């Protein structure tokens, strides 16, 4: 719940810094004003696809919304202190930020736990490239309309602006995926 409120405050801060109303942000993200309001007030936990769209429209790295403490030069997150989780069985994932990085970091490391009960949902896009490494379990990665089966030890690197989604390949076991979102830098 704490992270939900933190994310909401950050969405509001970034929205106001971009001089957008809730309605304008909602329209840009194909959401309702009510949903944006619930996110900002900590009453709703956004799916990563939703948060990614919001981040893209606000020109803010996704990682900035997921972190709770900012450190400028060094970020250490002890295993026993990890409390940064967002998501639930309704969206099919939980996310755990691995580094409390400054707002404009180019790389965002996250552990995604893919819940076995997750249903196939519409693939989504985001502005960051994505690298995934399967820590345990197995997933079905749907990328640009094609199915790719990945299991422990497998990895993939892909452009986030192509429709994609991954779900657990085993309906009885969750999968853990080390994910890096990488900001594209124009040459």
Strand order of the largest sheet: 1-2-3-9-4-7
By CATH reckoning, the class of the largest domain would read Mainly Beta
- CATH homologous superfamily title of the largest domain: Jelly Rolls
Report strand %.
25-35%
Give a quick account of the main beta sheet: strands, pairing sense, barrel closure. Answer: 6 strands, antiparallel
Shape: globular
- Per DSSP E runs of 2 or more residues, the count of β-strands stands at 9
The percent of residues in helical segments reads 10-25%
Unreliable residue runs: none
Separation, N- and C-terminal Cα atoms = 40 Å
SSE topology string: HHHHHEEEEEEEEE
Radius of gyration: 16 Å
Average pLDDT confidence is 81
Secondary structure topology:
Blueprint: H1 2-17, H2 22-28, H3 33-40, H4 48-57, H5 62-66, E1 85-88, E2 93-97, E3 107-114, E4 129-136, E5 138-143, E6 146-151, E7 155-158, E8 164-168, E9 175-182
Antiparallel strand pairs: 1-2, 2-3, 3-9, 4-7, 4-9, 5-6, 5-8
Helix pairs in contact: 2-3
Pfam family, one: HTH_3
InterPro entries: Cro/C1-type_HTH, Cupin_2, Lambda_DNA-bd_dom_sf, RmlC-like_jellyroll, RmlC_Cupin_sf, TransReg_Diox_bact_type
GO molecular function: DNA binding; DNA-binding transcription factor activity
